[in-house]
Specification:
The protein is an alpha/beta fold. It is 48% helix and 18% strand. It contains 13 helices and 10 strands. Strands 1, 2, 3, 4, 5, 6, 7, 8, 9 and 10 form a 10-stranded mixed sheet that branches. Helix 2 packs across helix 11, helix 4 crosses helix 13 and helix 7 packs across helix 13. The longest helix has 24 residues.
Length: 325
């Protein structure tokens, strides 16, 4: 390379670097973060989303060299916290801990905002699997046998639930299976589990870490999972409901959202640093011990999960005629 070519190459490099630096400054990334970050959690302290946020926030603060402060904004099915996040400045200094209510609220409630379009995905953090449980003396041993029994005795089989996802699962089982299964609401999952153990109800969908000790003690029996397919988790040997009823996939999840116009470069910084946090052995252990499957992905992947769930839950709400309390 001649002297002239070398000079030109150096100039190009310097120009490119200057353009990148200017772009970073324009998007507020060069000195990001330069002040504390607020992480809105739309539930009470001690709840599962709160625990997840605090585990991750502690290490994220170290990596970003700024405090990441959890701000609990509970109430109204998470809508209070969601609205606070939507109204926040899109500058990377407000995060929102997302759970499936983000995809459900726009269908059930008349909101003055749309979290599906006014909040942007950063990354998924964790996944929560569900398992379909029955009383040990329940005759059906497989999903096809369960559906056959429900068709033979319409209205005789009961499905208990507390909370939106177990309710939607009971309703979707009825709709997809074309059977008459009675839905039985409870104020809390522990009460529903007690009634399943006692034989007052026939079916219950609960999270894996809650179901596992009850199954191991033989108080209840695990019939199937709501995973896309069999072969993963503590109940890997079980069939997936999806095998008999295609599209029957239910999972809770935790993820991170930011106000919708947050610069993509800042979203990338957060995605990268959160991934590094989730890769830490201690963080993974604490989340797994809480009954969660640690998951990380690009923003587009998490956004696609939210869109998929929004479409599924909208369909169930409409077909089942579910109304907000």
């Amino acid at each position: 390379m001649g002297i002239r070519s070398t000079v030109l190459f150096a100039v190009c490099l310097m120009t490119g670097a200057a353009m990148l630096a200017a772009s970073a400054r324009a998007q507020g990334v060069a000195d990001y973060p330069s002040k504390p970050i607020r992480w809105i959690v739309a539930s009470q302290p001690g709840s599962s989303p709160d625990v997840v946020a605090r585990i991750v926030a502690q290490r994220l603060s170290v990596r970003l060299k700024q405090p990441v402060i959890v701000d609990n904004r509970a109430g109204a099915f998470g809508n209070i916290g969601m609205e606070a996040a939507v109204r926040a400045a899109p500058d990377g200094y407000t995060l929102f801990l997302a759970i499936p209510s983000v995809t459900i609220s726009p269908v059930l409630y008349k909101l003055g905002f749309d979290p599906m379009t006014e909040l942007a995905a950063v990354t998924q953090l964790a996944r929560v699997s569900f398992v379909l449980l029955v009383h040990p003396e329940f005759a059906a041993r497989t999903v096809p046998e369960l559906l056959a029994a429900a068709k033979a005795r319409p209205g005789s089989i009961t499905c208990g639930w507390a909370g939106p996802l177990p309710q939607f699962a009971c309703e979707f089982l009825r709709i997809q299976g074309g059977v008459n299964i009675r839905s039985v609401p409870y104020k809390g999952q522990p009460q529903a589990m007690t009634d399943l153990i006692g034989g007052q109800i026939d079916l219950l969908l609960d999270v894996v870490n809650v179901a596992l000790p009850q199954v191991n003690s033989r108080r209840v029996r695990a019939l199937a999972t709501t995973n896309p397919k069999r072969g993963s988790g503590p109940f890997a040997e079980l069939e997936a409901v999806n095998e008999s009823l295609p599209g029957f996939e239910f999972a809770g999840w935790h993820g991170v959202l930011v106000p919708g116009r947050t610069p993509p470069a800042i979203v990338d910084v957060l995605n990268r640093e959160i991934r590094a946090v989730l890769d830490e052995e201690d963080v993974r252990k604490r989340l797994i011990d809480s009954g969660l499957e640690v998951v990380h992905g690009l923003p587009a992947a998490f956004a696609e999960i939210m869109r998929r769930d929004h479409a599924l839950y909208s369909k169930i709400i409409q077909q089942a005629g579910i109304k907000a309390d």
